[in-house]
Amino acid sequence: MHRVVLSCLVVPLMLLAACGADGGTGTAAGSSTPPSTSPAAEPTASDPATDPGSGGISRADNDLVIEYDPGEGAPVERYTLTCAGSVEGDLPDSEAACQHLDGLEDPFAPVPDDAICTQQFGGPQTAHVTGLWRGDPVDLQLSRTDGCRISQWDRLGPLLPGPAR
After folding, report:
1. H/E/C letters for each residue in the chain?
2. Within a 10 A sphere around the Cβ of 50, how many other Cβ atoms?
3. Domains delineated in the chain
4. Contact, 62 vs 82, CB < 8 A?
5. C-alpha dihedral over 153, 128, 101, 122, to 10 degrees?
6. Tens-digit pLDDT string for the chain (165 aa)
7. Report field, pTM of the whole predicted structure over 0.85
8. How far is it, in rounded angstroms, from Cα 15 to Cα 49?
9. Distance of alpha carbon 43 from its chain centroid, rounded?
């Protein structure tokens, strides 16, 4: 009987101790310092994580920089885009770009190394997209040098200025 009662007490205590040892919001095992409860650590109404219009996405999660080179000696154009609750940035048609990217499962996936691509030239345009999307880092070089890269470019739709689609 004592073993059953002891087991019922020990298992929850072990689970509780394990939760605190993960380095998360609880106190680490063996530490006497309680978690921070300062007002600065708590979300505010203007925090995108608590803004119902942002879907819990913060600015840092969806900030992009697009560097577009039209090729043939034309100057490189640089745009910014933030898609978090409200749309910000100087990318032409920012609203459409945010909606389009949001509808794609993995918009910045690279062309697979083993892809078989048609040998066609889509133009001298190149682009470099950096930043964060859905909290994941983005660092994608784009071109229109073969069929796979043309498809990758076109898939990003209004994010990339350039040749008429």
Report:
1. CHHHHHHHHHHHHHHHHHHHCCCCCCCCCCCCCCCCCCHHHCCCCCCCCCCHHHCCCCHHHHEEEEEEECCCCCCCEEEEEEEECEEEECCCCHHHHHHHHHCCCCCCCCCCCCCCCCCCCCCCCEEEEEEEECCEEEEEEEECCCHHHHHHHHHCHHHCCCCCC
2. 13
3. 57-109+117-159 (3.30.350.10)
4. yes
5. -10
6. 444 444 444 444 343 344 444 444 443 444 444 444 434 434 333 444 434 444 554 556 899 999 999 998 999 999 999 998 889 999 999 999 999 999 999 999 999 999 999 999 999 999 999 999 999 999 999 999 999 999 999 999 999 976 644
7. no
8. 29
9. 20
